[in-house]
Every structure is written in structure tokens, then in C-alpha cells.
Amino acid sequence: MLWNQNIDPTKDLTQKPFVLWRPFIALWEWLVPPTVAHRDRQSPLARWVAALVIVIICLSLLALGIAYARPLKNSIKNMRAGSMVKEARQMMENGQGVNAVMKAQEAYTKAPESEEAIRLNFEYFTLLKRDTALFFYDKLKNLDVLTPADELLHVRCLMNLGKTKDASQALEQLMRVEQPSEALIKLAEEVWGDREQNKPLLKVLRNYTQEHPDDKEALLRFAKVQMSSGNPMEVGLGMDSLWKLASGDDDIGLQTLEYMDSLTSLTPADTTRLIERLKQHPKADDRHYVSALKREVQQNPGRKKEIVMEATARYQDKKRDQLLPFIRWLVEEGEFRQLLSVLPEEEAKAHQGLLENYLNALTVLQRYDDLERLVNDPKVAGVLDPTTMAMFRAHLAYILKKPTEELRTKLIAAKDAAQFNGRYAALLQIARYGEERGHFDIAEDAYRLAIKAAQRASASPRIERDAFTGLIKACLANRSTESLIQAAQEAVTRWPDDTHFVESYLYVSLLAGKNIELALRNAVNLLKIQPSDNQRKLTVALARWRLHDIQQAVQNLQYIDLNPLTEGQRAVFAAIANSGGFHNEALGVIKAINPKASMLPEEQRCFESVLAKK
Length: 614
Hints:
- By secondary structure, this protein is mainly α.
- The protein is 74% helix and 0% strand.
- The chain is built from 35 helices and no strands.
- Helix 25 (424-436) packs antiparallel against helix 26 (440-456).
- It is extended and about 115 Å long.
């Protein structure tokens, strides 16, 4: 009776669970009694089975923990490394090269097996031309995660390290398995660019084009390589292929014509044929027609006036965008009067590109009254962007010989407008304009702004390099040693392998007496690479002189040609020679220097120190 009674008064016996769940619920309650009364009635067998299940579960969890602890830890490390990789790439895009490399190495240290971290270090050390890149390439290879892009980078890495034979073999093996692409062909041209070494490239492309005769892009690449091979037979075959492709009315035909237009060694017959095809191709636009005009004038300079007049008649009723290439060509050809005759002022005032060329024509023709009137025209201000408008106003102030302060004010206004709009190309132009007219402080500021704007816009590295080169020149002209040190240091950080920037940084650092021992070591290493370089000899001599090693300093002055050196560097040369007892020789160098020459303050003190001992 006790075994059959309901021992759980809270349980409603009329509500039974779903029939399929009943066995599982019964099993669960057999192993895990729901109440104390049930636990008292639990059999010894059920207790042993429950204990055994608990032990098995614990052991299983322990085994799983041991088995997956390391993968889980590695997964967390890889996630952190991935975050660091993204941060490093962002740093590199912002021009923080050194910090990016350090962050990439930190990511690898955190997660040595992270594919992203390994690949990033491979890229960066290839860029830095360090053999450490090969270590990371081998890591990727061992992980079996190499991509075609990695293989391409491996070839470039070998080229950077001077292992041209290995690079050639790696590239040849890569081209056997990869379809020729633009990047692959470009790299192959670098590796096998010499006339006697591009035979492997020709062979690979020839085999590919024979197997894929309908691949016109590959045919065009092959023809380009043939044209650059230097082999007369290959050049002839390449030209035949180009004309076959150029006869097509499709996009490849037009691309072929554009490439042929870039060639400078066409025969007169080919030039005539190219001119006709550029004018007649159904997909060609006014840019191609103008290219044909350029070729036509080059081929028949005696007919230039006639060609210009015929083209003028063609463009008489063209719309503004169609007219722009022709107007630009007239500017290139110096046909400014013809430009003014074909382009009405009101039409020019309605289109920025046309207006800029129109204003340039007025400037060249010295029609300053018309230029001033248009620059101050509210309608023109509404067409030209603020930066271009400000630049024209500054130039107008210069050509009208306005007071210097007015020109400076307008140059600064143009600089500010270009900065506000992120126009790094305009900032470069303003910097050069100010530099040419002696406003070096404005030029220096504009160069710095151009660098920042180019970095923010991820512009071409060439833009940034030009800006740094100009900045260093402007700092020299401003006679600002500290600004020059900062500019040269930033340039070296951005391009650590650029010897021009490295030499500038070492020289100015030694002039200021900073990091002398380190600068000496680096200067000596540079001199070993080019023992006859005059500036490097002077830099080493300056470092020795700063360390009061007069004898070694004077020895480094031997056989230096003073002609390539600046007047400030000659003053440093004279001061070192003078301290070594060669007073007459030093005085002779000083007398040949213009006393009004622009020098850094430290160079000026060297100049004066020699004169003081006359």
C-alpha cells in the first residue's frame, strides 16, 4: 500500500506528460529523484548508475577541456592578431610606416601561427628589402596557405634582395601554373626586362596565345612584350599583331590604338595609318581625335596652321565637354590666339575646364585687363572652385606687380582654400609657386599640408615623395635647422631605403650635433656603398669632426670634388680643413663662396669661423 500511494501531493496525477516523453522522464526521475521521498525509495542500482553518469560527464568535460584548450587559446590569439593586423594596415595607409611594421611584428609575436600576421610581415619585410621576408614566406608555405599574390610577392622579394637568378626561376615556375595577368606580366618585365632575358616571357606568352587564340587581351599583352623585346623579328611580328587587333571595332581595338599612340618609333606609313584609324574608330572620342591631331602636326609641321584651321572648323559647334580636349591641345601647341577665336568668353565662363584654359591664354597674351575683369567677375567665381579661383587671384597679384604683402595674403588664402578642400595637388602647386617667388615660409607650410592631405587621401606615393623633397628644399631656403631635421626624419621614416632622404637627415643631424655616434655608423655604411660620393665623404668627415677626431676628419676630406656641394657644405669643408691646420686652403674655399649665399645657421658659423682667423 505504501509503495502505491502518491508520495508527491503537489503532483496532479490527472495531468500526464506526452506519451513519447514519458520514458525519458521516468529514466531521469530514476537517476535523479525529484523529491526526498523519491530519493528514499531510490534503489542502490539507480544510485550507482547516477554516480557513474556523473563521473563519465566530468571525465568527458575534462577530456574536452584538455583537447580543445590549446585550439581555443590559439583562436583567441588569432583574433587579437587579426585586430592588430588591421591596425597596422591603417597605420601604413596613414604614412606611419615604422609604427605599422612594429605593430605587425607584435601581431606575429602574439600569434606565431596567425596566417594574417605572417602574411603582413611578409609584405612589410619585402617592402623593406629585408631577407627576413623569406622566413615569413616559408612559414606561409609550411602552413600550405600560399596564394598567387604571395607567389608574386615572393618573386619581388627575391628581386629586392638581389637574387635575380632565384627570382627568374621562381617566376618561370609560377608562369607555368598561373594564367598571365597584368600584374604577372608587369613583374615579368621587371625580372626579364633586358633584351636578352625576356625570352622566357615571350615563350610563355606565345604558348598561351596559341592555346587561347580568342583571348584578345592576352594577344595584346604578347604584342606589347614583343615590341619591347628589341629583337627586330619579334618587333615586326608584334606590330603585325597590333594592327590586326587595331582593325577591330571593339574596346580591345581602341586599347590597341591607345598603346600604339604611345610608341615613339613608328614609321611614317604606320603613323599615317594610326592617324586615320584614331579618327575613324567607332568607339573613339574627342581625346583620340586630338591625339591624331598631335601626330599629324608632328609628322607634317609645315601643315600645322592648316591642320589647326581644319580642326577649328570641326569643333566650331561642339559642346563644352567635347570641346575641352581640343582647347587643351591648342594650349599645348601655343595657339592662344586661336583658342580665343574659337572659344567665346561667355561659353568659357560656363565651364570650369574651358575657363581655366581661357584664363591661361589671357595670361600668356598679357591681356591683364581682361584677366582682372574675369577674375573679379561673380559669374566666374561661381564656376571656378574656390582653390583655383584663389590661385588665379594670387597669380594676378604677381603679374600686376602688386605689393608683396598683397601677394602673400592671396597666396595664403589659396593655400587655406586648398587645405580646406583636401587638394594635395593644388597645395603642391602653391608650394612650388611660392618657392619660385621667394616666399619659402608659405612654401614650407604648403608642402607640409600637401603631405598630410595626400596621406589622408591615400594618394600616389609619388605625390607624397615630391612633397617631402620640396619640403626639405624649402626648409633649407628658410635656414631652419630644426624644421629640416623634422622633415628629413619624417621622410626617412616614410622611405627608409631612400638614400637621398637618409643623407639629408644624417648631414643636418650632424650639423646640429645630434645622435653623432649613430649618424657616424650610418654615414660610414653609406660611404662603403659609394666610396667616391663627395657628399658622403663630407658627412663622414663632419661626424669625425663632431667627435673631435680631427685627423680622421681631415683624411675624409681628401679627393672631395667641391663642385657638387652646396655653398653651405663648402663652408663646412673649409671649417674642418681649417681645424686640421690647412688654413690657407680653407681660406681659398671660403673666398670662392658668395657671402650672401643662403646657408643654415650652423654652416654660416663655419663660414665665419674661418674668416675670423684671417
